[in-house]
Amino acid sequence: xxxxxxxxxxxxxxxxxxxxxxxxxxxxxxxxxxxxxxxxxxxxxxxxxxxxxxxxxxxxxxxxxxxxxxxxxxxxxxxxxxxxxxxxxxxxxxxxxxxxxxxxxxxxxxxxxxxxxxxxxxxxxxxxxxxxxxxxxxxxxxxxxxxxxxxxxxxxxxxxxxxxxxxxxxxxxxxxxxxxxxxxxxxxxxxxxxxxxxxxxxxxxxxxxxxxxxxxxxxxxxxxxxxxxxxxxxxxxxxxxxxxxxxxxxxxxxxxxxxxxxxxxxxxxxxxxxxxxxxxxxxxxxxxxxxxxxxxxxxxxxxxxxxxxxxxxxxxxxxxxxxxxxxxxxxxxxxxxxxxxxxxxxxxxxxxxxxxxxxxxxxxxxxx
Length: 368
Description:
Elements: E1 7-13, E2 22-29, E3 37-46, H1 49-56, H2 69-74, E4 100-108, E5 120-123, E6 126-127, E7 140-141, E8 153-157, E9 161-163, H3 170-173, H4 177-188, E10 197-200, H5 206-217, E11 221-226, H6 231-237, E12 241-244, H7 250-258, E13 262-267, H8 273-280, E14 281-289, H9 302-307, E15 311-314, H10 322-331, E16 339-344, H11 348-357, E17 363-367
Parallel strand pairs: 10-11, 10-13, 11-12, 13-14, 14-15, 16-17
Antiparallel strand pairs: 1-2, 3-4, 3-8, 3-17, 4-5, 5-9, 6-7
């Protein structure tokens, strides 16, 4: 398969803004591997919040709203392109997005064993810098600082193409990379222990549903926050109790479900839920966040942090080796995919609309 076609199908992001900035092309140049790289024939690519956040430049500090359906579809008037990426820097256009790739290695660059051609892989989306995991300036994200997987072919550093042996379909495998590495990193920041109680906000989304499974493997008691209609699915996934996200007194509902204050809170929602999570923590409790889809701006009394001896952490850049550990769990069937819906590549804009409506549990995937 080293004989790659000259052009391919791809969805190209032409600039920051609304869904109209996504252009379906059938004549996009097929990538060629540089030394140390492989080209992957994409079978499927999952969606995640980074796709929406980057397209709309929601990451820029001038945007203070959450990711609403209107903002996600049309973009934000206050967005600033100069700080429009996750790292608060500009990205170049046109850009092929998509971080969650499952496929087969189609070509290898100089220095990569050609025997890897035909190998089934999942792509680790974190292209870590050489210095340390904390070096954001030296770290790139697949589909943000470089082209990603919403295309027939994509290229990546060989070490980021992680071999996987599984009977799962490409679409099912494409539900894992971003959501599960993010959830694993989020949990890792709290050092969750067996028998501890953990409350998970946004539990029905990709990261939240992944966190349920990963917390279950750690032997924790899991309180999930989600729409009441999704409770049965989350219970079957491993949650012990589901708290309705629109409960009149969310803190009280969390404490009631847990039988008292909780040890750990995991958050991708932010906004009004933040304070309820903080107040539901025990003395010495731990909170970690990897997103703020309901809004990045919160009002917070620092005395809650000081006099309860709380630990608050942010979790973005994922340490090396995380993806490899997750692939082993996949191969051992210890975690399972939650494939909510699939769309063909040319309907990526429709897939993003469905993703933003948040009616699903798990992940939405584009098949190539």
